[in-house]
Specification:
The chain is mainly alpha-helical. It is about 70% helix and about 0% strand. It has eight helices and no strands. The longest helix has about 35 residues.
Amino acid sequence: MDSNLLARIHGISVMLFLLTYVIKTILLFTSKGMLEKYSKVTKVPEMIISTLFLVTGIWLFVILGGIKTMQIIKLVLVFLSIPLAVIGFKKQNKGLALVSLLLIVGAYGMSEASKNKPFIPAKVAMTGNVNSENAMGAQTYFENCAFCHGADGKKMYRGAKDLTQSKFSFDDTQQMVRDGSKGKMPGYTATITDDNIAAVSKFVETLKTNNE
């Protein structure tokens, strides 16, 4: 499945998942009778939404092949919130239900906060002269860029550009690596050195199919 479509399905399921928990928590505090009726009507849809939420999220991680620190915390919060919610709403325990909702909201916040954060650099085994400029660029690329762009530059994870068809100049690429693109690609100024930025930008040049 296309990662953009998968991400949209995941985003919708997350919002519905969060909305369901908000409604149930409000009903628990205001009308337990209405909560019981609502829970009966939404039992199957809620199971479908929860499944979509978890499956699409895990699927995206598998496609990406990497995970950020904030996303790890997000997963922990989600997996903590689900059993608490089940117990809280089943036993009509306001405290557990509220804690569960707060965990889910926190997980959503972590997800939003991680969007413009770089991935955790992986340890990449390099062969040959690792002190050469090309080796530095390749290592920097595989540590930070290959998650979304792929080893060959063609992965296009969630709208990442096909680097083999890039029209960017060397200077344009350096600026993109430094500053990123809001909502799409994080900036790496605070993550890697200027030398790394120059080296990885030169390596990206080698991926272009129109490179003469």
